[in-house]
Design brief:
Length: 377
């Protein structure tokens, strides 16, 4: 009798699938617990003994994305200084917060207006001799055209290396300049002297006035910033390669989330002195930051804020409408690959895709939205 009982007990043990469950870490954009199972049978035919208390989740179809969230600063961007040119005395200055307008005076010298033009070349010489060629002439021509003046034939010269590039100062352009001077209250000479007009790259907002009336014009007059509110985000140099101009981002403001767009990326990285742990020559450049500029898609979203600490979420990759489970639902097979376990013990083989925010993309035969799987606690 004892021998028959021992034989039955031995046969019963032989039918139990030997399994070893180990906790490990999967780090492919997310962290979770994964069971490793060794078994002699195909996964589709296997059964496992469920724990008395089982945590489960359902397979869900959703968009899955990898992202990084970085702290940034809402403001008007970098501050730049404006120094006056020419001779004379400042007799009127703008107020803080004033915004420039093409063709309108920014300040006054000897009680004459000094208007603003937009372009990439300052007026570094007197423009009075017909036939002069240069990019400063191009700036004059482009601005008068933008203000509605007839400047005549284009007169743009494409010359070989070593010769001046840009537009030609023609008699028609001089006549248009004279009409504009008369309209804005300048002496209508048809000539333009260096210092008569301030050339800026585009519209700006006066940040602070540094000079006082009575000071000579050839000094620091004011500082200025972009008229648009922007967000400056220092991103780790190792991670900035995943960011592209034009990328859509999410801006987390004190009052909620709003959409934004990456408008620019600095060409140079700066060392962050707030990161004292990085040692020179150690190969650790975690303290190296590159400034990324972000614009809110709607200016009205930040109209009530001049400055604020914000968070910006950059999405580097997105998989749309995929099946997902918690990472803890994965069971790693000793021979390679993964399965998920159903509450009854059945193991279903899956192929994995993107890992993100504690979830993993899965696919395979029998994997569908709503399927219930066991999750490691």
């Amino acid at each position: 009798m004892a021998e028959r009982a021992a034989s039955r007990e031995s046969r019963g043990r032989s039918r139990v699938v030997p399994a070893v469950v180990l906790a490990t870490v999967v780090a492919v954009g997310a962290v979770g617990a994964v069971a490793v199972v060794r078994h002699p049978h195909d996964a589709s035919d296997s059964r496992a003994t469920a724990a008395p208390s089982v945590h489960t989740a359902k397979v869900v179809r959703r968009d899955l994305s990898n992202s990084q969230t970085v702290a940034g600063q809402l403001g008007f961007g970098p501050v730049r200084d404006l120094k006056g040119t020419g001779e004379g005395t400042l007799t009127k200055l703008p107020s803080n917060g004033a915004t420039t307008v093409r063709g309108k005076a920014l300040y006054r010298v000897d009680d004459r207006p000094v208007p603003v033009f937009y372009g990439d070349t300052p007026f570094f010489r007197d423009l009075k001799k017909v036939g002069l060629v240069g990019n400063d002439v191009t700036v004059l021509r482009n601005n008068l055209v933008a203000l509605g003046y007839d400047v005549g034939f284009e007169g743009t010269a494409q010359r070989s290396a070593g010769q001046a590039q840009g537009s030609t100062f023609t008699a028609a352009l001089a006549a248009a300049l004279k009409r504009w001077q008369q309209d804005v209250g300048l002496k209508p000479t048809g000539e333009l002297k260096a210092g008569d007009v301030v050339v800026l790259s585009g519209p700006v907002r006066v940040n602070s006035v540094k000079a006082q009336t009575g000071d000579p014009v050839a000094e620091d007059i004011l500082s200025y910033v972009s008229p648009k509110k922007v967000i400056t985000v220092p991103v780790n140099a190792q991670q900035v390669s995943a960011v592209r101009p034009g990328d859509t981002v999410t801006i987390v403001l004190p009052g909620g989330e709003v959409p934004g767009t990456v408008s620019g990326i600095a060409r140079t990285a700066q060392n962050d002195s707030a990161q004292p742990d990085a040692q020179p020559g150690s190969g650790d450049d975690s303290s190296s930051k590159t400034n990324v500029t972000v614009l809110p898609k709607r200016a009205s979203d930040v109209a009530s804020l001049d400055e604020a600490d914000v968070q910006v979420e950059f999405v580097s990759e997105i998989h749309k409408n995929v099946l997902t489970v918690p990472v803890g639902a994965l069971v790693a097979l000793s021979g390679g690959g993964f399965v998920v376990q159903r509450p009854g013990g059945e193991l279903v083989r899956v192929q994995t895709g993107m890992f993100a925010t504690g979830l993993v993309e899965v696919s395979g035969k029998g994997v569908a939205a709503g399927l219930t799987v066991v999750v490691a606690s």
